[in-house]
Amino acid sequence: MTPIRLDSFDAFASIVRCGGFRAAALERGVSSSALSQTMNALEETLGIRLLNRTTRSVSPTEAGQRLLERLAPALSDIRLAVAEVDELRDTPSGTLRINAPAPAVDHVLCPLAFDFMEAYREVNIEIISDAAVIDIVEQGFDAGVRFGKQLAQDMIALPLGPALRYAIVASPGYIEKHGRPQSPLDLVRHNCIKRRFPGGTLVTWRFADGNEEMEITPTGRLMVSSAHNELQAAVAGRGIAHVFDDYAKPHIRNGGLVELLSEWSPTLPHWFLYYPSRRLPSATMRAFLDYVRAYDWEARAADRQLSILP
């Protein structure tokens, strides 16, 4: 049998994990054709088909699934061995892959990553914006960002960024035409901009004023899938939006939006950066974790405020 390159097995695992050649090629930084050639050579050497290929999907055959089940622990051990060798480096280097929802990416992770990359010039960071709850180990990420209640028990987590707050906002034009709601219950008579999570769940709006709490399901003509589009619609006067106040603040300051029901907007827990407890963090990951723990979020927020003042 022709000798098999170990990276061929890793390429095979990437294709299955990503669900196709194009996504796996992007992850690995190679062309789809090169990845296809690698798989063809592996199947030819083994003398058996490992992947079912259609125009719409790629999935492992029975033989491919069996091979993958045996390969996964071995590939994990290889990555761990490389990480242990990386421990001997004096300077952190390599690539960190982090998965996070778009709001966390926009307001917490990107500012942090930009500053970290300035401090550690040999480190690359890949940030994937994704609100779905995933297995970061299976998907090949070093860390993820989610709320605390979304974390698996075998993960180590540390707070990331300041506490969060939602804002209910509408344009001055909308308020002039439709009036200002005086309580959350009034929203059922307004055109609210609805948003759906990637998994299909409709975002509900939660409110709290002292000991009184309530939750409403927004009603309205427009539904979107991102906070950016929800905010865009509110600025255009298409309805009332429910977004993180970090998105709304610049528009509130310039008069494009007005905050409503501010006394009903509770403070929420902050994000958490999490990573697997069963994996020894690399020197680069440890440097990033130390940087997160020491990061001055209040000073960073003050700098951002100054940078957007006229």
Task: Give a short synopsis of this structure.
This protein has 310 residues and is α+β, with helices and mostly antiparallel strands. It has helices at 6-18, 21-28, 32-46, 62-86, 102-119, 172-178, 227-235, 245-253, 283-294, 297-308; strands at residues 51-53, 58-60, 94-100, 123-129, 143-146, 155-160, 164-170, 194-195, 205-209, 212-216, 223-224, 241-244, 258-260, 267-268, 271-276.
Could you characterize what this model shows?
- By secondary structure, the chain is α+β, with helices and mostly antiparallel strands.
- It is built from ten helices and 15 strands.
- The protein has a five-stranded mixed sheet with strand order 4-3-5-15-6, with helices on one face.
- Strand 3 (94-100), helix 5 and strand 4 (123-129) form a beta-alpha-beta unit.
- Helix 1 crosses helix 2, helix 1 (6-18) crosses helix 4 (62-86) and helix 2 crosses helix 3.
- It starts with 5 loop residues before the first helix and ends with a helix.
- Mean pLDDT is 87; it is low at 306-310.
Give me the secondary-structure topology.
Blueprint: H1 6-18, H2 21-28, H3 32-46, E1 51-53, E2 58-60, H4 62-86, E3 94-100, H5 102-119, E4 123-129, E5 143-146, E6 155-160, E7 164-170, H6 172-178, E8 194-195, E9 205-209, E10 212-216, E11 223-224, H7 227-235, E12 241-244, H8 245-253, E13 258-260, E14 267-268, E15 271-276, H9 283-294, H10 297-308
Parallel strand pairs: 3-4, 3-5, 8-11
Antiparallel strand pairs: 1-2, 5-15, 6-15, 7-12, 7-13, 7-14, 9-10
Helix pairs in contact: 1-2, 1-3, 1-4, 2-3
